[in-house]
């Protein structure tokens, strides 16, 4: 085991909550370390969710979900803007198909008013004016103008990158095996390394319960639900412009239909209990998504489906966020069970954890050199012809298109391998640049991306993986 490293705060978990907490902590003169068990950040729920910035009418008043949802919604636009991440306040609609469901909309509106969220119940005429492709069977909807959309993996990667740019350390392939209280702090160990912190924050997502148990905290349970999605090509990006929800039932919010900030249309997710982190899709799950999408919209363009995927999200047996100090281990903070609207709430959670929880343990001194802005990773296609030409003059690699579907250049791929947190594999490059996310799903560009990774990282082509671990693309040479 290597020599211990000493930190003020250790954050366990490289998802959006852990990433934004790490970034928030670098606003102060603290030595911060983020540890992640996978080979890259954003490998859990943060890489595969709906990307919805919820307005805040749904959460029960008085809960942490309600508090941080509303606060996070207000913070998201500036947070995303500072980090160079795409965000759009597109508004959301909860659609009712019966008189009983309209009564539920009225209750949601009342709940929203208690939470401080502006909503309006609209009839068929206004609903169809807003969304011409909504189902002909729809009778009314609850309209929330403050609803929005963001890219969850771009936000996570940018937050962690900005934290690193401001001095935070990142340890990947760090699977926590023990948490031990020692003099003046806590030791967090994996099989190969140990780090020490005055404060440790458990943001481990699905692993949050297991991490808590290592410290003797077994007074809550973290469960898992799998959600399956289908994604349409950007050719169908104008099919809807707002996020469309079914009226919620006791079982949850159900399938939604939403545009993405990158111009696709997303249908999903299902909600199936899980015992593990299995992210395989199923015929039954995807069929259910398509069936519900066809009920929500008139003639969805399913011929433009380009991929399907699944994500697994954590929830707590409290059915609310768990954001609190450990009952058994001084200096340990739990930030777990962050299910929907966790993405929306994440900027507010980060602010609260840093200022109120960490700040009650460690004196927070402002970091005068903190810089909270970051250039976007995938930016070239949005530039004017004149701007592109100026960049190409300085760096010819930006003049070579590698991913034709998404118009991603070699220069952007090289940048993704160099800036914080650097990509290490095909999927890491994909999440940072969108190469491989278009209609062909990497059929044309993946070999070129692999060659660039091999060249830039100085590793054999046979060592390049799709997503770390044993996911090598090639086994050897034939010539």
Key terms:
nine-stranded mixed beta sheet, single chain, 22% strand, 479 residues, globular, Arc Repressor Mutant, subunit A, eight-stranded mixed beta sheet, D-Amino Acid Oxidase, Chain A, domain 2, alpha+beta, FAD/NAD(P)-binding domain
Cα Rg = 22 Å
Assign the structural class, choosing from mainly alpha, mainly beta, alpha/beta, alpha+beta, or little secondary structure. alpha+beta
Count of separate structural domains: 3
Q: Main beta sheet: strand number and arrangement? A: 9 strands, mixed
Helical region count? 12
Molecular structure report:
The protein is of the alpha+beta class and 479 residues long. It is 30% helix and 22% strand. The protein is built from twelve helices and 22 strands. The chain has helices at residues 16-25, 64-82, 99-115, 124-130, 152-165, 208-214, 283-296, 342-357, 385-394, 410-418, 426-433, 446-457, and strands at residues 5-12, 32-35, 52-53, 87-88, 92-96, 120-123, 140-144, 148-150, 169-171, 178-182, 185-189, 194-202, 222-232, 243-246, 256-259, 265-268, 272-274, 305-316, 322-325, 332-336, 401-403, 408-409. Helix 1 runs parallel beside helix 5. The radius of gyration is 22 Å and the shape is globular.
């Amino acid at each position: 085991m290597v020599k211990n490293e000493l930190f003020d705060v250790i954050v366990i978990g490289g998802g959006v909550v852990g990433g934004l907490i790490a970034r928030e902590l670098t606003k102060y003169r603290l030595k911060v370390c983020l540890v992640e068990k996978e080979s890259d950040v954003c490998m859990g729920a943060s890489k595969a969710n709906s990307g919805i910035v919820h307005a805040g009418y749904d959460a029960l008043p008085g809960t942490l979900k309600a508090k941080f949802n509303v606060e996070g919604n207000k913070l998201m636009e500036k947070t995303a803007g500072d980090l160079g991440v795409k965000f759009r306040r597109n508004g959301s609609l909860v659609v009712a198909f019966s008189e009983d469901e309209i009564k539920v909309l009225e209750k949601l509106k009342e709940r929203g008013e208690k939470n401080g969220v502006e909503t309006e119940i609209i009839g068929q005429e206004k609903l169809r004016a807003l969304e011409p492709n909504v189902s002909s069977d729809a009778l009314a909807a609850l309209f929330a103008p403050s609803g929005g959309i963001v890219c969850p993996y771009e936000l996570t990667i940018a937050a962690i990158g900005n934290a690193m740019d401001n001095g935070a350390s990142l340890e990947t392939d760090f699977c926590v095996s023990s948490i031990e209280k020692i003099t003046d702090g806590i030791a967090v160990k994996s099989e190969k390394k140990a780090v020490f912190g005055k404060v440790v924050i458990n943001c481990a997502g699905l692993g949050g319960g297991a991490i808590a148990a290592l410290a003797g905290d077994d007074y809550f349970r973290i469960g898992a639900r799998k959600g399956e999605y289908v994604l349409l090509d950007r050719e169908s990006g104008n099919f809807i412009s707002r996020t469309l929800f079914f009226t919620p039932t006791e079982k949850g919010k159900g399938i939604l239909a939403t545009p993405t900030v990158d111009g696709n249309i997303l249908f999903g997710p299902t909600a199936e209990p899980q015992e593990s982190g299995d992210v395989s899709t199923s015929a039954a799950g995807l069929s259910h998504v398509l069936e519900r999408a066809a009920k929500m919209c008139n003639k969805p363009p399913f011929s433009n489906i380009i991929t399907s995927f699944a994500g697994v999200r954590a929830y707590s047996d409290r059915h609310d966020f768990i954001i609190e100090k450990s009952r058994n281990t001084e200096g340990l903070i739990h930030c777990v069970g962050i299910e929907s609207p966790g993405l929306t709430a994440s900027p507010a959670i980060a602010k609260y954890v840093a200022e109120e929880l960490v700040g009650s343990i460690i004196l927070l001194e402002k970091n005068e050199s903190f810089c909270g802005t970051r250039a976007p990773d995938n930016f070239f296609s949005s530039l004017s012809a004149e701007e592109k030409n100026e960049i190409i003059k300085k760096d010819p690699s930006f003049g070579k298109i590698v991913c034709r579907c998404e118009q991603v250049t070699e220069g952007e791929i090289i940048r993704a391998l160099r800036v914080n947190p650097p990509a290490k594999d095909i999927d890491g490059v994909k999440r940072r640049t969108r190469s491989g996310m278009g209609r062909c799903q990497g059929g044309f560009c993946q070999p070129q991306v692999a060659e660039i990774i091999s060249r830039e990282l100085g590793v054999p082509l046979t060592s390049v993986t799709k997503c770390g671990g044993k996911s090598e693309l090639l086994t050897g040479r034939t010539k």
